[in-house]
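Module 6 notes. Inverse folding takes a fixed backbone as the condition and produces residue identities as the prediction. Think of it as a translation problem where the source language is geometry and the target language is the twenty amino acids. Below is one complete input and output pair. Work through it position by position during the lab.
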């Protein structure tokens, strides 16, 4: 049963058909929000979510989160169908395992397109439609804050470092309009992105970095997303909330 804490609100969630994005969309819908789910290719999963939430309260829009044109179309469809935008959650991510020597120019461009360019221009295109009380939420990584990070995460964390600086400055840019800008920094989470075909030894090694020895769940990340989306977080802006079970 919805708490209606977000009744009357409209949320855009990129990468919203699986993992943390899916859990967040379902959580915000439970709180009464209408949700717009952007996905690149998961037609079946996105439609299942629309069916679960209800067609009056959910919309699936196919698109590439790193495409400026697709971001413009996402904004246009949202305003056309629901008339407003209150919450923007840029959740799409790309995690290449590349150290300095193994990074190609294409690797670099692909990583920056998805993890930096996409959020940057999504916010730019959404900004004219945001009003006082609106929320912008991005995704960083707990690995930005641990000393045990290994070389193959160099490229990914270069992008996430950019996200953290984006948060810091956008808070000053959008704050005068009473729009908050925050990010969550998940630790290892049980999703396709962070555990793609991990072997049991690799999985156990990751779990060993966390005090209670397990991965986080998408639902646990979604709870923090719901908090940052709500009026309860009105005085929280420019922050990177580490949701990682004590890993960092």
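Target side of the pair, the amino acids:
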């Amino acid at each position: 049963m919805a708490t209606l804490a977000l009744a009357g609100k409209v949320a855009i969630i990129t990468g919203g058909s699986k993992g943390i994005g899916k859990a967040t969309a379902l959580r915000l819908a439970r709180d009464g929000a209408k949700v717009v789910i952007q996905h690149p290719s998961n037609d079946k999963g996105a439609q299942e979510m629309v069916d679960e939430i209800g067609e009056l309260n959910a919309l699936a829009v196919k698109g590439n989160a790193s495409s400026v044109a697709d971001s413009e179309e996402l904004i246009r469809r949202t305003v056309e169908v629901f008339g407003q935008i209150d919450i923007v959650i840029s959740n799409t991510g790309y995690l290449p395992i590349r150290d300095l020597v193994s990074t190609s120019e294409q690797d670099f461009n692909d990583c920056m397109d998805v993890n930096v360019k996409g959020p940057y221009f999504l916010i730019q295109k959404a900004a004219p439609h945001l009003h006082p009380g609106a929320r912008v939420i991005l995704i960083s990584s707990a690995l930005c804050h641990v000393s045990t990070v290994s070389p193959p995460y160099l490229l990914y964390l270069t992008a996430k470092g950019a996200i953290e600086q984006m948060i810091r400055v956008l808070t000053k840019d959008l704050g005068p309009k009473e729009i908050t800008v925050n990010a969550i920094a998940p630790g290892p989470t049980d999703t396709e992105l962070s555990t793609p075909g991990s072997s049991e030894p690799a999985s156990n090694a990751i779990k060993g970095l966390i005090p209670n020895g397990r991965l986080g769940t998408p639902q646990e990340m979604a709870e923090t997303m719901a908090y940052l989306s709500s009026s309860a977080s009105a005085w929280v802006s420019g922050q990177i909330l580490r949701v990682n079970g004590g890993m960092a």
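Reference fact for the lab report: The helical segments are 19-30, 43-53, 68-82, 105-126, 154-174, 200-207, 218-229.
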